[in-house]
Amino acid sequence: MPEGAATNKARLIVDDEFEIAPIDDRLFGSFVEHLGRCVYTGIYEPGHPTADADGFRQDVIDLVRELGATTIRYPGGNFVSGYRWEDGVGPKDQRPRRLDTAWHSTETNQFGLHEMVKWLGKVNGNELMEAVNLGTRGLGNAMDLLEYANVPGGTKLSEERRANGADKPFDIRMWCLGNEMDGPWQLGHKTAEEYGRLAAKVAAGMRQIDPNLELVVCGSSTHDMETYGAWEETVLDATYDLVDFVSCHSYSRPWNGDMQSFLASGADMEAFIHEIAAIVQSVKARHKTSHQIYLSFDEWNVWYKANDPANNPSGIGNWPTAPRLLEQIYSVTDAAVVGDLLISLMRNADTVHSASLAQLVNVIAPIMTEPGGPAWRQTIFYPFSLSARFAKNGTALETVLDGPSIDTQAYGEVSAIGHTAVRCKDGSLAIFLVNRSLRDDTKLEIALPARRRFSAARSWTLHDEDGSASNTLEHPDRVTPQVTDNVTIDGDTISVNLAPVSWTLIHVC
Length: 509
Hints:
- The protein is an alpha/beta fold.
- It has helices at about 60-65, 115-125, 140-150, 155-165, 190-210, 230-240, 260-265, 265-285, 330-345, 380-390, and strands spanning about 5-20, 30, 70-75, 100, 105, 130, 175, 215, 245-250, 295-300, 350-360, 365-370, 375, 395-400, 405-410, 410-415, 415-425, 430-435, 440-445, 455-460, 480-485, 485-490, 495-500, 500-509.
- It has ten helices and 24 strands.
- α9 runs parallel beside α10 (about 380-390).
């Protein structure tokens, strides 16, 4: 125990008669962008020892299955604001090479919509969440892409899809109307009024082709933007009855080395969710409509932006293909924060119906690869994988904690323990916990539903005395979840000790 540390006591009450909401499987989505090595030498690498006939790395497919990711957002991200979707279809030897100004790279277009759909089919039949370009493009191009993807046949574009090898339509249900259009860095950046008008026109036009689409309108790219809040109100006023989701994006990192606030990032995310949910309800009331818009938290993760060479490469003559960008190595501390962010998403399952961990492979990702070499799990892989395993098709439950708090410079006083509980699809209980304290243990007593009989409890914990411990190419299994014996069950009470800077899952049956 660190010098000056204490052992706190806390009590958590779980009662499965008090439900928050069913957990949508889309909560465990992820994100594939044409950025760095996410696609090329990530999920797609012809010639790799594990590659199949389509060039898809089987070792990565196996890890994505294990991760439990569901809906995959594609193809961006900032990339989509300059993307011509038609470049990525048709014979590969006829596809053009293009400049990607978002990441100062060359896009070969050897991987496009058909490859993505085929790859998802090989993973687990995962759902595709397609983004349209509203940066350099607009209504006509969005309707063309929708016709190509979803119309069964009999038109120019649908017949082109069939000629390109996909006889049946892709039937993409969920569509993002652009990406981070509030951001000055975004190609085709717009004001809220400009974007709201465009998004409304695109949504209405797309619904003329397929009225049952689920459409995601851009919210603020971060909740630190000067236009935050006002952007959502303006955009939702213009689009409310035409869309189904508003997006949220948030990346956590220790500002100025403030690790205690960093460990409380889950509380920050939860406040963000509540603020946007309140704006949604305000606009709904003003429009006097019964239509409900939900949150799509379609970019979230830990990202140490200041440490990334994101401004490289540069120069008019230097546009590399699939350069190493944003390849962050995650620590066990980062994994605890990611686990806490997942807790916040599950605690708000009534509001958040979709979320995408950004990204999936190599780029701020739970899975890493080497070209021609192995693939491995980062530390953040484990809280995501275990949460998805036990919470999918489950129901989020209310939990009440009586316990210590911690003071943070960024967020004030917050609970020392991040917590939620899920009634799993088989009726068992999964309890997710994070000790946000940098130094103090917590002895936690959990009161289970008294009317139910539980006989066994199993626990997984991510913790290391070295908070910077990570998994690397040389040491891919340095950090793994430990099945612990520090959990006891006595009737309707569980006792567990939570180490500082740790993530824990307890499964009770």
